[in-house]
Amino acid sequence: MIRNIVLVKLKPGTTDAQVDALRGALAAIPFAGRHNPLVERDLGLVDETMDLVITADFDDEPTYQAWFADPAHNRVRRELLLPISERSARIQYRI
Question: Under CATH, which number does the domain 2-52+60-94 receive?
Fold first, then answer.
């Protein structure tokens, strides 16, 4: 199984409604082999953290690669994530 983690620094002024729209849109994409999708804001317990985490588990590498190329996923990234993202980092690892 592959776990994907994306950390996002949000642009100043990003609203809860924008994050909720992103969360809802990602959750609504039907995708076989994707498990436990999550979008959450940082709690702000320490300084110098990223603002948002997006995680999901995938059955295997081909499933993750198919998700990364999926048109619905890329539409959500383009229309809802990129407009609110100042910068991001991602990692995938086996679990």
Answer: 3.30.70.100
Domain range list for the chain: 2-52+60-94
Name the average pLDDT for the chain. Answer: 97
pLDDT per residue over 34-57, tens digit each?
A: 999 999 999 999 999 999 999 999
In SS3 terms, 20-32 reads as: HHHHHHHHHCCCC
Q: Give 80's pLDDT tier (boundaries 50, 70, 90).
A: very high
Q: What is the DSSP string of the chain?
A: -EEEEEEEEEPTT--HHHHHHHHHHHHHS--TTEEEEEEEE----SSS--SEEEEEEESSHHHHHHHHH-HHHHHHIIIIIGGGEEEEEEEEEE-
